[in-house]
Amino acid sequence: MAYIREYQHRFGVEPICDALREQGITIAPSTFYAHQARGFGPSDHDLTDAYLANSIYDLWAANRRLYGRRKLWKAALRAGIEAGRDQVERLMKLLGITGIRRGKRTTVTTRQDPQGLRHPDHVQRRWNWPTRPDQWWVADFTYVWTPQGFCYVSFITDVFSRRILGWPVMRTKTSLLVQSALEQSLFIRRRTNSEFTTQGLLHHSDAGSQPGFNWS
């Protein structure tokens, strides 16, 4: 804009715009004349955009510079800042700010052995079948990535109440992990119910295993 303003009397606005367009810089003569009509100052839209960008940056900095477009947009709405998600994304690009990106880290928790012995599946995914607590317990385990490496969580859930009874966490996936979940579940039930008994209780787990695991 400043270049056209400086040389418009020498070459003309339209020829300069044509030359700039050939160099990949697209600007219409009408755009120049519009800026000229208001004294080459920022428009009301430009000012609104600038104020909004400043608010978005302050909000991003206040959240430890971690938020990406989605979280930053929701934080803006909670703060009473009227902005669309695409608008927040556009302003973040103009400001040169981004959210933290967490790398996806995965590991294998179970492997099926087609030749291994398997207990009969008495559950068959009939999750609404139990009519009382402690009729069916289901067991599984998963993993969580931490800065110190993977940790593993084994848990047992009462199907009827959907309550998680055992949830030990360990750095290794050995038999002790799943045994601890069962021991914790039994301890919790016996502590809260003196009449608890394992008679008639079905303990169900998946068919996968890791070396050293002893699922039953």
Architecture overview:
By secondary structure, the protein is α+β, with helices and mostly antiparallel strands. The chain has 2 domains: 2-95, no CATH class; 106-216, no CATH class. Helices cover 40% and strands 14% of the residues. It has 7 helices and 5 strands. It has helices spanning 2-11, 13-22, 29-37, 44-62, 69-78, 85-95, 175-192, and strands spanning 136-146, 149-158, 163-166, 169-170, 202-205. Strands 1, 2, 3, 4 and 5 form a 5-stranded mixed beta sheet that branches. Strand 2 and strand 3 form a beta hairpin. Helix 4 (44-62) crosses helix 6. The longest helix is centred in the first third of the chain and has 19 residues, at 44-62. Residues 211-216 have low confidence and may be disordered.
Mean pLDDT: 85
Largest sheet: 5 strands, mixed
Count of beta strands: 5
Number of domains: 2
Beta percentage is: 5-15%
Pairing-aware structural class of the strands and helices?
A: alpha+beta
Report the C-alpha radius of gyration, rounded.
Answer: 32 Å
In sequence order, what are the helices and strands, one letter per element? HHHHHHEEEEHE
The helix content is: 40-55%
Low-confidence stretches: 211-216
Report the end-to-end length measured between terminal Cα atoms: 76 Å
Q: Supply the number of helical segments.
A: 7
**Quick one: overall form?**
elongated
SSE topology:
Blueprint: H1 2-11, H2 13-22, H3 29-37, H4 44-62, H5 69-78, H6 85-95, E1 136-146, E2 149-158, E3 163-166, E4 169-170, H7 175-192, E5 202-205
Parallel strand pairs: 1-5
Antiparallel strand pairs: 1-2, 2-3, 2-4
Helix pairs in contact: 1-2, 4-6, 5-6
